């Protein structure tokens, strides 16, 4: 999948500047699609050129002008067609830590432990951030009520996927650390 559809999906929330979209990616999309601000700005230019988004300039005093982007009807149609297509291929894990774990038998066990503990810290940090996003989305409502009444539930459902992913990361890391503790040093 290209960044194109992630940007179009982000604009379903409404008009946004490139800066605002980069913040949306940091919070709402980070659990399933990463992007740098530079990539976002390049993609916004392509989408504007292709007629899938419109840009308008907002004049600001004492600040540079900013461009605000909205979905066009062509962009909505393209996104609807994309959403109806089956994924091209299943998700594949590409994780540098897994390569390091694969090769750990020739590495320092303490270095391996440190890498796994670092991954756990990252997962905990993401889970804390996702919990804040979840609370903001629910806004005092129960999950059941939110899912029944909210205008859009896609962002919440993808957030649940991100939460499940990081919880599984933590479980796996705990299992790796337990296995490392059980091994007797060879020598």
Describe the structure in brief.
This protein is mainly alpha-helical. The protein has 8 helices and 3 strands, in the order αβααββααααα.
Description:
There is one protein chain. The chain is mostly helical. The chain has 2 domains: 82 residues, Winged helix-like DNA-binding domain superfamily/Winged helix DNA-binding domain (Arc Repressor Mutant, subunit A); 87 residues. 63% of the residues lie in helices and 7% in strands. It has 8 helices and 3 strands; from the N terminus they run H-E-H-H-E-E-H-H-H-H-H. The protein has a 3-stranded antiparallel β-sheet with strand order 1-3-2. Helix 6 runs antiparallel to helix 8. The chain starts with a helix and ends in a 5-residue tail after the last helix. The mean pLDDT is 90.
List the helices and strands and how they pair.
Elements: H1 3-10, E1 16-17, H2 18-29, H3 37-49, E2 53-58, E3 66-71, H4 73-84, H5 96-102, H6 109-138, H7 143-149, H8 154-182
Antiparallel strand pairs: 1-3, 2-3
């Amino acid at each position: 999948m290209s960044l194109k559809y992630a940007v179009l999906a982000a604009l379903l929330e409404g008009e946004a500047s490139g800066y605002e979209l980069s913040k949306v990616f940091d919070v709402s999309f980070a659990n399933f699609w990463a992007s740098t601000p530079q990539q976002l700005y390049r993609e916004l230019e392509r989408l504007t050129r292709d007629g899938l988004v419109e840009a308008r300039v907002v004049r600001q005093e004492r600040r540079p002008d900013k461009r605000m982007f909205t979905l066009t009807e062509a962009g909505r149609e393209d996104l609807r067609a994309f959403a109806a297509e089956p994924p091209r291929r299943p998700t594949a894990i590409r994780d540098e830590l897994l390569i390091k774990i694969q090769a750990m038998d020739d590495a320092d066990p303490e270095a391996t432990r440190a890498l796994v503990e670092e991954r756990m810290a990252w997962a905990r940090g993401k889970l804390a951030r996702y919990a804040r996003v979840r609370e903001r989305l629910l806004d005092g409502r129960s999950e059941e009520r939110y899912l029944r009444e909210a205008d859009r539930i896609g962002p919440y459902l993808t957030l649940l996927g991100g939460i499940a992913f990081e919880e599984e990361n933590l479980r796996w890391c705990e299992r790796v650390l337990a296995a490392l503790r059980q091994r007797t040093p060879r020598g």
